[in-house]
TrEMBL record, chain A:
<protein>
    <submittedName>
        <fullName>3-oxoacyl-ACP synthase</fullName>
    </submittedName>
</protein>
<dbReference type="InterPro" id="IPR016039">
    <property type="entry name" value="Thiolase-like"/>
</dbReference>
<dbReference type="GO" id="GO:0016746">
    <property type="term" value="F:acyltransferase activity"/>
</dbReference>
UniProtKB/TrEMBL annotation, chain B:
<dbReference type="InterPro" id="IPR036736">
    <property type="entry name" value="ACP-like_sf"/>
</dbReference>
<feature type="domain" description="Carrier">
    <location>
        <begin position="2"/>
        <end position="83"/>
    </location>
</feature>
<dbReference type="InterPro" id="IPR009081">
    <property type="entry name" value="PP-bd_ACP"/>
</dbReference>
<dbReference type="Pfam" id="PF00550">
    <property type="entry name" value="PP-binding"/>
</dbReference>
<protein>
    <submittedName>
        <fullName>Acyl carrier protein</fullName>
    </submittedName>
</protein>
UniProtKB/TrEMBL annotation, chain C:
<protein>
    <submittedName>
        <fullName>Beta-ketoacyl synthase</fullName>
    </submittedName>
</protein>
<comment type="similarity">
    <text>Belongs to the thiolase-like superfamily. Beta-ketoacyl-ACP synthases family.</text>
</comment>
<feature type="domain" description="Ketosynthase family 3 (KS3)">
    <location>
        <begin position="1"/>
        <end position="379"/>
    </location>
</feature>
<dbReference type="InterPro" id="IPR014030">
    <property type="entry name" value="Ketoacyl_synth_N"/>
</dbReference>
<dbReference type="Pfam" id="PF02801">
    <property type="entry name" value="Ketoacyl-synt_C"/>
</dbReference>
<dbReference type="InterPro" id="IPR016039">
    <property type="entry name" value="Thiolase-like"/>
</dbReference>
<dbReference type="Pfam" id="PF00109">
    <property type="entry name" value="ketoacyl-synt"/>
</dbReference>
C-alpha cells in the first residue's frame, strides 16, 4: 500500500540562522559560537525549560529544530509522531569530551552528565520528553544527508501504521560546525514528500 | 564554613548547568533534590564526581549521596569532616 | 504482504566464533564473564566478557592483514564473512548492509591507538566493512543505544518491505573499551561480581564485547534450518528520562503492544521471552512491571547477560540469534546467575536448561535515551 505523503513544516538551522519553511525566523546572523546562538534562540522561542542548559550541543540543536517544527503544528500527547534522525558525526563532539576526562591517569574524572550524551539517540530522548512522544524512534549515521533513505524509512513507518506522522532530520554537530534540517511528514501538508523534493529542500539557502 | 557553603553553591550552579538560578536563590538548608532545583539522578552522580575531584572524597554507594546531598549545609559539614584535599 | 525472515547467522564472542559453538557453551552452563585486571580498560579489576585477541588475529589472518583493521572491524568482518559464505547470497545493487553499534571504533580516540582518529566516525567503520565485501550500497549505521541490535532487525524488515532491498545483511558489534567502562563506572552501574539479572542480590551490569550477524530476507527458497519469521516489531520511547528507565515500563509496554498487534497473536502464544535483563536495579524492575502489565508473567523468560555481559549494540541481535537456536533446539536456556527473584512483579525465570517444544518467542531491549524495542519471531519449520 503506497500512501500519498506530504511535508507540512520544515526548518533549517545553519550559520547561526534559522529558516522555517524557507523563511528567516531569526533575521540577524550572529558572529558567535553555538552556545551563545542557541541561548539566544531559546529566549526568542520563549522557552522555559531549564533542562535545555544541561544538554550537549547535538541535543540542543535537535531540540531547537524540533521546537521550530512542532510549534507550527497543533500537537497533543495522543499524536503518534515518530522521530527519525540522521547525521555524520554521531555524538563524536561529546565523545571527545568524555575521552579527555579519562585520558590522563592524574585527572581521571569521567562525568556521568557528559557520558550520557555520548549516544546520538539521547537527542531523540530529549525531544520525546519535551513533547511527550512515546513513539517509534531511531538514529542513523550516514556519510551525508540521504534523502532516499529518510524518504523510504518514513514512508515505511506511515504505511505500516507505526506512526501518524514522522519528524525526520539531519542533525550534525562536529567541532563547532553544525548543520540541521528537520521536517515533518504525514498525509497532510502542502509539499509532496518525494526524494527529489527533499534533496532540493535540504539545499535551500536563505 | 560560610565560605565553603558559598563555594558549593557556585559549583552546583556551574557544574549542574543551572542557568536560571542564582546563588541567592539557594538557601543553606533548602532541599537540593525534589522540587527545589529540579535536580535528577544524573545530577546526584555528578555531585559524587565533584566530591571526589575537588575534595578527595570517594563515595561508592549512591545511597550515601542521598543523605549528604540533602542541603548545602549538610554537604558543607560532611566535606569539612571528610575532605582529603 | 510478503513475509520477512531471519536466517543465516553468526555470533563471535567470549563463548566462541560460530553460533553453534556459542550455543554449546550456553547449554553447558558456561559463562564468558571473567575477572580481568587491565589498566587499559579500567583502573580497578572488572568482570567482563572478552573475545580472545590471539584467536581473533589468528582467525582473521585468513581474510586480511591484522594490522589494517581495528579490533571491532576484525570482529564484524569475521562475523559477516561467516554469514555471507553460509548463505551463498550474491551481493547485488538490491543487497543492503546495516551496521548496528553504539560506539564503533571509539577506542581510536585514546592516545595509545595507532589508528587515525578519523576512524572513530561511524561512516568510516561502515566504509571498511562495505568495501571489504564489495557491497554496492552505502551501509546504514544504526546507533540507538542498547536497543540497536533488535531495532536493526526491524529496520532491515521495513526496508525490504518498502522495496529498497531484497536482502539485508545486519552486522552488529561493540568492543569493551576504557571509554565505555569509565562511563558506566561514573554511573555507578557496574557490578563488582558476575551479573545476576532479575535476582534479589543483583549489583549491576557487566560490559561485554561481541559481534553478531544475520541475513534478513523475503526469499523463502534460501532459508537455513534455524530460520524464523519476524511476526511483528516496534520501538517506543518512554518520554520520561534520558538515563533512568520509566517507573511504569511505559515505552517497553507500548513496544510490546504494537509488536503483538502487528503479529496478530495473543500473549498466550508466546513460548519464551528473551528479556534485556541488564541486572541494574531500575532496569530489571522496569521490565518486570512491563511484562506484568502485558500478562507475560507466566511465560518462561531469561536474560543472557549472565553469559555475555551487556554487549551494547550487539546484544539485541546476539540474543535474538540465541533465541532462534532456542526454538530450533526446542530448548529453554537457563538465566545464568539467577538466584532468588528480586523484582516486585512475578516472573517465570528459567532456572535450568530444559527441553520443551517451542514455536514463538519475544525479544525485548531497552536503553539510554528512553528507547525500547520488542520483536516477535516464529519458527519457520
Amino acid at each position: 500500500m503506497k500512501l500519498e505523503t506530504y511535508i507540512s513544516t520544515y526548518c533549517h538551522i545553519r550559520n547561526n540562522k534559522i529558516l522555517i519553511n524557507g523563511k528567516p525566523f531569526i533575521k540577524d546572523a550572529f558572529d558567535t559560537d553555538f552556545s551563545i546562538f542557541s541561548k539566544k534562540v531559546y529566549k526568542d522561542l520563549n522557552l522555559s525549560y531549564p533542562k535545555f542548559f544541561k544538554m550537549d550541543n547535538l541535543s540542543k540543536l535537535a531540540f531547537l529544530a524540533a521546537e521550530c517544527v512542532l510549534n507550527r503544528e497543533k500537537t497533543n500527547e495522543d499524536d503518534n509522531i515518530a522521530i527519525v534522525l540522521t547525521n555524520r558525526a554521531s555524538s563524536l563532539d561529546t565523545d571527545r569530551k568524555h575521552q579527555s576526562s579519562i585520558q590522563d591517569k592524574e585527572s581521571y574524572y569521567p562525568s556521568p552528565a557528559i557520558f550520557v550524551y555520548t549516544l546520538p539517540n539521547i537527542a531523540i530522548g530529549e525531544i520525546s520528553i519535551k513533547h511527550q512522544l512515546k513513539s517509534e524512534n531511531a538514529f542513523f549515521i550516514l556519510d551525508a544527508f540521504n534523502a532516499e533513505f529518510l524518504h523510504n524509512y518514513a514512508c515505511s513507518l506511515l504505511e505500516n501504521n507505526k506512526a501518524e506522522s514522522v519528524l525526520c532530520g539531519w542533525v550534525d554537530y562536529d567541532n563547532e560546525k553544525y548543520d540541521c534540517f528537520m521536517y515533518k511528514v504525514s498525509q497532510i501538508g502542502d509539499i509532496k514528500h518525494t526524494i527529489n523534493k527533499l534533496q532540493n529542500l535540504y539545499k535551500i539557502k536563505d | 564554613m560560610e565560605a565553603l557553603k558559598l563555594e558549593l553553591k557556585e559549583k552546583i550552579i556551574e557544574q549542574l548547568n543551572l542557568e536560571d538560578i542564582s546563588i541567592e536563590e539557594i538557601g543553606d538548608n533548602d532541599p537540593l533534590f525534589g522540587d527545589g532545583l529540579g535536580l535528577d539522578s544524573i545530577d546526584a552522580l555528578e555531585l559524587i564526581v565533584m566530591l571526589d575531584k575537588d575534595y578527595g572524597i570517594k563515595l561508592t554507594d549512591p545511597k550515601e549521596g542521598k543523605k549528604i546531598f540533602e542541603s548545602v549545609a549538610i554537604m558543607a559539614a560532611y566535606i569539612t569532616e571528610n575532605r582529603t584535599k | 504482504m510478503s513475509k520477512i525472515y531471519l536466517t543465516y547467522n553468526n555470533i563471535i564472542s567470549s563463548l566462541g566464533f560460530t553460533t553453534t559453538e556459542n550455543i554449546e557453551n550456553i547449554s553447558k552452563d558456561i559463562s564468558g564473564i571473567e575477572k580481568i585486571e587491565d589498566i587499559n580498560l579500567s583502573q580497578t579489576p572488572i568482570y567482563t566478557s572478552l573475545v580472545n585477541t590471539i584467536k581473533l588475529d589468528n582467525t582473521f589472518k585468513k581474510l586480511g592483514n591484522i594490522n589494517d583493521f581495528t579490533r571491532l572491524e576484525k570482529l564484524m568482518i569475521l562475523s559477516l564473512h561467516d554469514v555471507l559464505t553460509e548463505s551463498n547470497v550474491k551481493i547485488t545493487p538490491k543487497t543492503g548492509l546495516i551496521i548496528s553499534t553504539t560506539k564503533g571504533n571509539i577506542d581510536v580516540l585514546d592516545s595509545s591507538s595507532k589508528f587515525s582518529k578519523k576512524r572513530a566516525y561511524l561512516s568510516e567503520l561502515a566504509k571498511q566493512i562495505q568495501r571489504f565485501f564489495g557491497f554496492k550500497n552505502e551501509a546504514i549505521v544504526l546507533s540507538n543505544a542498547c536497543v540497536s541490535g533488535v531495532l536493526a532487525i526491524s529496520v532491515a524488515k521495513r526496508l525490504i518491505k518498502s522495496d529498497m532491498y531484497d536482502n539485508v545483511f545486519v552486522v552488529s558489534g561493540d568492543i569493551v573499551s576504557k571509554f565505555i567502562i569509565s562511563g558506566f563506572q561514573s554511573f555507578q552501574a557496574i557490578s563488582d561480581s558476575s551479573c545476576k539479572p532479575f535476582s534479589k542480590n543483583r549489583t549491576g551490569i557487566n560490559i561485554g564485547e561481541a559481534a553478531a550477524s544475520v541475513l534478513v530476507t523475503s526469499q523463502k527458497e534460501n532459508l537455513a534450518p534455524d530460520a524464523v519469521e519476524i511476526l511483528g516489531d516496534a520501538s517506543c520511547n518512554d518520554a520520561n528520562h534520558i538515563s533512568g528507565p520509566s517507573r511504569t515500563g511505559e515505552g517497553l509496554y507500548r513496544s510490546m503492544l504494537s509488536a503483538f498487534n502487528e503479529a496478530n497473536i495473543k500473549t498466550t502464544e508466546i513460548d519464551y521471552v528473551s528479556a534485556h535483563g541488564t541486572a541494574t536495579n531500575y532496569n530489571d524492575e522496569m521490565e518486570a512491571i512491563a511484562f506484568d502489565r502485558i500478562n507475560l508473567e507466566k511465560v518462561s523468560i531469561n536474560s543472557l547477560k549472565g553469559y555475555y555481559g551487556h554487549t551494547l549494540g550487539a546484544s539485541g541481535l546476539l540474543e535474538s540469534i540465541v533465541g532462534m537456536q532456542s526454538l530450533y533446539n526446542n530448548t529453554l536456556y537457563a538465566s545464568y546467575g539467577f538466584d532468588e527473584i528480586g523484582v516486585s512483579k512475578p516472573l517465570n525465570i528459567i532456572k535450568e536448561t530444559t527441553e520443551k517444544p517451542l514455536t514463538t518467542f519475544l525479544k525485548t531491549a531497552s536503553g539510554f535515551g528512553g528507547c525500547n524495542t520488542a520483536a516477535i519471531f516464529k519458527k519457520v519449520l
